[in-house]
Amino acid sequence: MAAARRTRAPGAHRACAGLAADSHTYAGSFLYHLDDDRVYVGYIVGLDYQDPRLQAVRGVPAVQDHPSVKALLEGGEIGLGGARAIAAGGWQSTPTLEMPGAILIGDAGGR
């Protein structure tokens, strides 16, 4: 989460596909406007990427440096940072929840 100089109405959002990834990788970014001139900026990469050199963490600066986002964030400050895995791609992309000696629960299970 970051403080923005000026934002749209809370609830407004923008999405972008393919930023900072090759054409074979499911990737994109999002920007959600909150109240009090705050925004969530995020970057998503599908876990089925094929390039072993891909580092998803490098996608976040690419989003922040995009001209339309950079102008919005200029003068603001990072209030919070984090990362998580999400199940994207539909039901067939969710992991098996149980295996010998382990079980996935909560967000880790993606359901």
Features:
111 residues, alpha+beta, four-stranded antiparallel beta sheet, two-stranded antiparallel ribbon
In the sheet with the most strands, the strands line up as 1-4-3-2
Global shape:
globular
Query: What structural class do helix, strand and pairing data support?
Result: alpha+beta
How far is it from the N-terminal to the C-terminal residue, by CA? 24 Å
Mean pLDDT: 77
Helical percent range?
A: 10-25%
Description:
- The protein is an alpha+beta fold and 111 residues long.
- The chain is 12% helix and 23% strand.
- The chain has 2 helices and 6 strands.
- The chain has a 4-stranded antiparallel β-sheet. The protein has a two-stranded antiparallel sheet with strand order 5-6.
- The longest helix is centred in the middle third of the chain and has 7 residues, at 67-73.
- 15% of the residues are buried.
Summarize the structure.
With 111 residues, the chain is of the alpha+beta class. The protein has helices at residues 59-64, 67-73; strands at residues 2-3, 13-17, 27-33, 38-45, 98-99, 102-103. The mean pLDDT is 77.
Task: Explain the layout of strands and helices.
Layout: E1 2-3, E2 13-17, E3 27-33, E4 38-45, H1 59-64, H2 67-73, E5 98-99, E6 102-103
Antiparallel strand pairs: 1-4, 2-3, 3-4, 5-6
